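Exercise 3.2. Students should predict the tertiary structure of the chain below and write it as structure tokens, then compare their answer with the key that follows.

Predict this chain's 3D structure.
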Amino acid sequence: MHASLLALDTIAALEAYADTHPAEAGRARAMIAFAGSVADPFARTTRPGHFTGSAIVLDASGRRALLVRHRFLGRWLQPGGHVDPGERPADTALREAREETGLSSIRPWPGREGALVDIDTHPIPPNPRKGEGPHVHHDLRFAFLADAQETARAAVDEASDVRWFPLAEAAAEAWRADILPKLRALPPP
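Answer key:
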């Protein structure tokens, strides 16, 4: 899909998110403004930042979340990454989650396919190894389901470990606390 069509698709998703999460409407509107201000809001080279896609991977009980230990940032985070050309951010999130965790069972949360479950803008420090200066990630987060019995393993260089966390502990490690009510409101799988 062309970047301008992806941007329109993303703007529509952010508008829907703002409607269902009024407390975060300002954050969503800032992302919408960003999407309209640059030629390609998904390109890794776009500065001062770009959109990324992330996966909030939960087990069937909805009480555990899968996080990866990000080697460069030294933190536990949800799987995710940069949007490949022509790729929808939800597809990015799914691809990255499978690549980073080695789990083939990861799939969109039933009834929430392609719908944003959270958004976040955060700074990324310079990475001399990749020749990248400081920039910002406008992270689009989607809910996914995985079989907790399948063996997870850090499957890419960016991740040094993968582990299931109780949901509240995952939120404390990786997210803002306001994500918990959104995750607890997901329909049963």
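Discussion points: The CA atoms of residues 171 and 177 lie 6 Å apart. Helices lie at 3-20, 25-35, 89-101, 167-174, 179-184.
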